[in-house]
Amino acid sequence: MGIKNRLVVMNFLQFFVWGSWLISLGGYLGISLHFTGGQIGGIYATMGIASLFMPGLLGIVADRWVNAEKVLGMCHLIGACLLFWAATAKDPVLMYWIMLLNAMAYMPTIALNNAVSYSVLGQKGFDVVKAFPPIRVWGTIGFICAMWVVDLLGLSQSPLQLYISAGSAVCLGLYAFTMPACPPAKAKRDGSWVSVFGLDAFVLFKQRKMAIFFIFAMLLGAALQITNTFGGQFLQEFKSISNYSGSFAVTHPGLLMSISQISETLFILSIPFFLKRFGIKKVMLISIFGWVLRFGLFGVGNPGGGLALLVLSMIIYGMAFDFFNISGSLFVETEADPKIRASAQGLFMIMTNGLGAFIGGTGSGWVVDHFTSNGVKNWQNIWFVFAGYALVLGLVFLMVFRYKHDPKAIKTPIH
Questions:
Q1: Correct CATH for 1-184 of 1.20.1290.10, 3.40.50.1980, 1.10.10.10, 1.20.1250.20
Q2: CA–CA separation, 324 vs 328, rounded Å?
């Protein structure tokens, strides 16, 4: 098998592991185990906690002492053990701690997967900028396939989804050890602890424009977490309503939700056009108001006559997700001093996937619990609150963020 195909398999499995449970676990916890919204949100927030420090910590390990492919493999094998354990857990406190440990093992592997891919492609003489994107897209395909497997096997409300994830993590963990060696760099890296954790990039907060940007990155990062946490459960709870119990959205929520990931692969291709035509600020505004529509359409849609609204919400997700992440990364790339660009990208990830994800998981759990009475959730009000949150973010961002569009400053980063 050629090296590109080997990397395709690695990227496919990397996100198959995650896709097996990320969207459907909330339904299992809420419907099958009767966890509260706050407990579910707290469990999902563990990914935010882990993202604050584990990618940087294991990045230092891979940079200084242990081959990146070996760190990747060990993380997945440890994660597999934790997922097997999580499949047997019924107590919310125990589940929280298991999933926190799993997040500490899994979240660093996203960056490590990229690092191994870059290293291997470079060793083989490939142009990383051209060669990696077609390989990485198989990660999204893996995520979609995992959702379909769990859905078509009827495991959306079963702990078996965790066993599937664990089994694929074992395969990937062992497979990673067979990849070409990606040894630590021999050059001494001054101040790497500070740089890897993005601490030297905090100097950017001295600039009003950058301070505002990072604050909104954190607040919008919270929105990214909400539908991962409760989207699946929202669709699955329509099963208790006789008019919808046999509908497509209820019997195959994973297939419906996977439209969001399919949309991602399509919208990402349109980003260069939108960035050059409208500029970063407008693209980010499109993303923010996309989240307003994403949540609002969930509030008015249903698996019956409102199915088209749910499908439209899934399509809009691709735009809302991709436009913010990539335009935000581009903004950091073009505005930060070259000496701290890597740290600035790390800070961007901390604000969105770390603090933002924690706020989103925890805050959304509180909202769901507030609109739950006698075990029944008022999903319409829940989604309207989330839509209102995104609307306020968009209006305030429009007023306070100042940035002049320069088409010549647009570049394509490698991420």
A1: 1.20.1250.20
A2: 6
